[in-house]
Amino acid sequence: MNREVCVIIAAKNAAQTIGRAVASALEQPETNEVVVVDDGSSDATGEAARAADDGSARLSVHRFDMNRGPAAARNHAIAVSRSPLLGVLDADDFLLPGRFERLLAERDWDFIADNIAFVDEARAEEARYEITEIAPQPRLLDLEGFVEGNISRRGVRRGEIGFLKPLIRRDFLDRFALRYKEGLRLGEDYDLYARALTNGARYKIIHSCGYGAVVRGNSLSGSHRTEDLRRLYEADRAILAEPGLSPAQRALIARHERHIRARYELRHFLDVKREQGIGRAFLYAATHPTAVPAIAGGIFFDKTARFRRKAEEPAALGGTGTIRYLLPSSKASP
């Protein structure tokens, strides 16, 4: 198969991990380009990325002088690349051998994603060779399944569909003028995929595992600002303002908007309490009665968290040092 994939890596202060990510992308025979965008790093991210070059002239490294966020970095990579297929790789993650071969064996898709293995940073190198061989079980993901997979429930661990890292056909993005929303620093992937699905994208999933996600306590994706939540639910509102949505599509996006807005209301209440005092926080709640259920439910859950934490922590990765898979899996037949 001809090389036809551009691997996009947005990186900020990732000097310790970017080399592994770049090397894993260049190891894929189908990789035609690897475009790294150094998003205003204060460390040697760019130099570390170049040090992983294999001499095949497939790697290019670009730099923003100021941090602009992952959406802007990915859009820049799309603009400067030329390959018909685009694949996103986070700077602290890695691709497993044969990933693109398995994905490209499937037909009839605009987006295609595979399973994700979550591994501890300390075991990332050896875990690459311990991934279970999983049957592909290909299926199409519709808007309902996608939105459902992006709505969390307190105390219930679920597969976070928004974490999937699909290959994307450039011509589909171009046909519908789709790019990442650069104002988003949380949920930029969710927003792009949701807009694609409302435009009729065929989003295929296989359960075979080709992507390794490294779990790190200081991961940038593990933290977000209250403002990020507000921008995300406003992105849902922008989708809802688009003409041509079916009633079912409108109901699904509205459901996600309410979910994110509830998280925002709790965070905003706590911000007001911390910065202006409990009196001002309760005044905010009193003048925003629709926010009260989210605030009350969130506070109750937080106050009772210590009773659950001891039982939940060992299962965070399926047990210390073990590999957890995002999608349910069954072993492939020998």
UniProtKB/TrEMBL annotation:
Q: List, alphabetically, the InterPro entries matched.
A: Glyco_trans_2-like, Glycosyltransf_2, Nucleotide-diphossugar_trans
Superkingdom to which the source organism belongs: Bacteria
Question: Which intervals hold domain Glycosyltransferase 2-like?
Answer: 6-133
Q: What is this protein identified as?
A: Succinoglycan biosynthesis protein ExoU
